[in-house]
Structure formats: structure tokens, C-alpha cells
Amino acid sequence: MAHLADYKTDRQFKATVRKTKRLTPPNTDEVREIMLEVQEPDFICEVDQSFGVLVDRPDQFGNEFHHRLYSVADLPETKKGKTKLTMLVKRCSYIDEFSGERIDGIGSNYLCDREVGDQITITGPFELPFTIPEDHSSDLILVGMGTGIAPFRAFIKHIYHNVNDWTGKIRLFYGARSGLELLYLNNKDGDLTNYYDKDTFKAFHALSPRPHWSDPILLDYAIEERAEEILEMLSKSSTHIYIAGYEKVKENLDKAFSTIMGSKEKWATRKAELVAGNKWAEVIY
């Protein structure tokens, strides 16, 4: 897996904030949907790519900029050499383990504070590991946490807008701390629900049992509840599994798939096959 330092920042472009809106209610963690417009025709970004944001913030290690990557959260639109990109940003902070001080995340707070008309510096584009299989009858198991819904939103919309002969099953498992944080799967901004009537697409929610605590979201239980169908999908050589979210989710997913397969050993073998066949991909934040 590539590290952030591996992504070059020499190709830089200016992007203007055209829209910024909060998707989550005031009493929850702030997640914003931000639309950028890049006026330089050399910048072309596809649905299966990401881009970086540079914040002018020198640090103690000699770095002039703070660099963070973001997935495209909607179908990119290019007209007359100008490209519009949509991104999801969660305002983050953490507690310093030595001082106990609350420290704001540099990139997320910078972006959430931008207003319409502001300019930012972006880099890229960079490839994401989530690609449309050549075999359009392939089954897809997609697992997203929080803003990890972003690449899958664009991915799913691309399939149903632009891939006319898609016949494979798509099962999206999406985790949030509460129903109010189910981005794009709620009454207010539920454009992914537009695909519920497709024969091939289903989305399943998994919520935290205690949303005000740091309990892991129960994605593993949501997957295990569909064990019969998941086992059938895993039995096919063409099935792909894509994951986007937090590091701690991977352990719970391994437990869920081990339960479904019948043992840790069987799942380890199947996962190794998926990895070797380029049918397993993950973006971990």
C-alpha cells in the first residue's frame, strides 16, 4: 500500500470553491460536501482517481506544506477545459497523548473553513485501487465507513450511468455512528437510494450501538446477517471486495468473513486468492 509521502506534489493546480454545505446536523460530527472548479485544462480527473490538497503549513520536520488525499465523491464534470470535483470532508481533531491537548486536524479544518470563492491548491490526480472489472457480470462487495462512502458513491453512479451492460450484484455495506450520519442514504441527500430499484444493487446500513462513544460500528454484524448471500458471492472467482474507511475496521471484517467461510484458515486462503487476483482493494484513512 502506498504511503502519503509516495505521492508527488510537483504538479499543482488552483481550484476555486464553488459550493460548500454541511451534510450532517449541528449536533453531530461535521461532514461537508465541497465542490471545486479547476480552470486549468491540464487537470483531468476520472471517477476512479483521487487528488491531493496542499495546505501552506511548515512543520518541525522541514515540510513546507501539509498534504492530504481525497477521493472523488461524484462523477467529475469537465466543460470547456474546466473540471468540477466533489469531495467529502469530515472536520477532525485528536487528543495529544502526551499533553492531553485537543489538536485540530490541519487538512480537514482548513477545508471545512473555506468559503465559496476561496482558492485552494490541489495535486494529482492519483490512481485509486477501485476499478470497474472488465467482466461486467462480476459481483462487488463494497464496505465503506464514514466519508469512505465518497469513492463508492462515485463508483456506483458511474456504473449505473455509464456501464450499460452491468449484470453483477453490488452489495454496499456502509457504517455510520447514527442514522443522521448516513451520508447519501437518508431522506435529505439520499441519491444512492435512487438505485434501490435496480435488480443488482442493495445497500445495508450499520450503526454504532452507542453513537456518542468510540465503539466500532457494527459492519461485521451487518455482513454476517447476509451470510448466505455473501458466501455465494465469495464462491465465485470473479467477485471483488473493496474497502474504504478506518484501520480498525479491517480486523472486524476479517472476523466476519472468517465466520461466514467457516474458519480463519478458509478465509485466509480465499482472501489471498482475492489479493493475488487483484480483486481485493482497500483505501485506509
Task: Characterise this structure.
It is globular and about 50 Å long. It contains six helices and 14 strands. It has 285 residues and is an alpha/beta fold. Residues 178-190 and 207-217 have low confidence and may be disordered. It folds into two domains: 4-126, Translation factors (Elongation Factor Tu (Ef-tu), domain 3), CATH 2.40.30; 140-284, 3-Layer(aba) Sandwich (Rossmann fold), CATH 3.40.50. Helix 2 links the parallel strand 10 and strand 11. It has helices spanning 106-112, 149-162, 219-224, 227-234, 249-261, 264-276, and strands spanning 12-22, 31-38, 49-56, 65-71, 77-79, 82-90, 93-95, 102-104, 119-127, 140-145, 170-176, 201-207, 240-245, 280-284.
Q: Give the number of domains.
A: 2
The overall strand count is: 14
Q: What is the helical fraction, as a range of percent? A: 10-25%
Strand content: 25-35%
Largest sheet: 7 strands, antiparallel
Key attributes of the depicted protein:
32% strand, five-stranded parallel beta sheet, Elongation Factor Tu (Ef-tu), domain 3, alpha/beta, Rossmann fold, 285 residues
Summarize the structure.
The protein has 285 residues and is an alpha/beta fold. The chain has helices at 106-112, 149-162, 219-224, 227-234, 249-261, 264-276, and strands at residues 12-22, 31-38, 49-56, 65-71, 77-79, 82-90, 93-95, 102-104, 119-127, 140-145, 170-176, 201-207, 240-245, 280-284. The chain contains 6 helices and 14 strands.
Q: Which helices and strands occur, and which strands form pairs?
A:
Blueprint: E1 12-22, E2 31-38, E3 49-56, E4 65-71, E5 77-79, E6 82-90, E7 93-95, E8 102-104, H1 106-112, E9 119-127, E10 140-145, H2 149-162, E11 170-176, E12 201-207, H3 219-224, H4 227-234, E13 240-245, H5 249-261, H6 264-276, E14 280-284
Parallel strand pairs: 10-11, 10-13, 11-12, 13-14
Antiparallel strand pairs: 1-2, 1-9, 2-6, 3-4, 3-9, 5-6, 7-8
